[in-house]
Amino acid sequence: MSAAIDSELPAELRAEMLDEIRNYLPAFLRKDASEQHDPIGDVKELLNLEERDLKRVVAVHACLDESVLAFGDRLQEGLRRPVTSSGRPAEVGQAVRGPVDWSATVARRSLGAGNATHYVVRSARRVYDVPENRALVWLLDRLQAACHRALAEKPDAAALDGTAEANTWANRIRRLAAQLERARATEWLRGIDPEPPVGRTMQKLRAARSSFYRDDLTAAARRMISLESPDENDLVEVLSERYFEPAATWMIFEVCVALRLARGLGEVSGRPRRARLLIGAGRAPYARFLFEDESEVSLIYQTWPENAGPSLLAETGRRHGLAVGPSKPDLFIVRSGGRPDVLLLELKASLSSTYLKEGLAKLLGYLADRPMLWKQKPAGWLVAPASDAFVGTDAPNAEDLWMVDADAVAEAAVARFAPAPSAD
Q: What are the structural domain ranges in the chain?
């Protein structure tokens, strides 16, 4: 992805692109599009995210969920009125402290067990180790782990005494972490093992007389369960609310273009996909499409394709003792088969002509870095939102660079890379 760019797009355009991602991404990740369904793996490949980064995004989303924050706010009140059951364990002794179990006492004496002056007493005791509280401990464990992953820190004194400002997402999570830490000091919680609230336990929670257990604990537990192994719809919600917001307009633009290309090529592909829709790691494509002429078209995001050849820039740097890091172009379209072709797309979420000119210079640098890679012209497309900043034209046949607006890029890619339909 591009590092720091001009992304001052109109708010309505930004909202339209985000809606497009929300509407299409679940279908892009759906089960029947993959041989092995792994939406988390798919999203990692599409967005070039490290696994730890995606897990942190999910953790932040979980901690800031309304049901989770409401659970934290009600936690101390709920712990003062826990769900319990009554137990009457047998106690043997001379002192009578509670109701005497005469049948057990007589049976004990008839067997000659112990002193004849001892009684079996069964006093009512509150039992805290019940399924509802095991679910509560499970939720506390999961939320504390999520807070730690989201913040990579322990709650500080200000969070613990409630004086921290709550106007940032980090401070809201710190406040939640402090609420959980305080709950852990509750005496009756100690010694209760965690148990996920599934099946019968969830039924008990829904039927609980306590609104804390019935409403707050149940809602927060359901949210955490859904994010333990999020499906495609959960992940889209996470990305839309916590990853693309509030200042990632450039990221929204790049993902929107990447999905438009996949959708356009998918609609004309005449053969099933060979593998998962999003596959592999490193240099693997995030989408592949087979066609009737046995050609395969691949979409590759933020890395050079395999067999791209040596980098002239990197080789020059080594020759002169300069440390030159690897470049990360935005997107490639690669066709293998009888008519191989490679196209580099530089994506710019900008309406600024100055910035678009800088993008063209960057694109030209990529093309010059590996000149043997390109099979046809134009070898590089600069993709930007349609605007008055540039004039759209048909794709030239003899020039290296072309500019195309984001609304037309998928159609242009299909025209270039999908084989012409047979005359039959």
A: 11-37+248-417, 62-78+131-229, 89-123
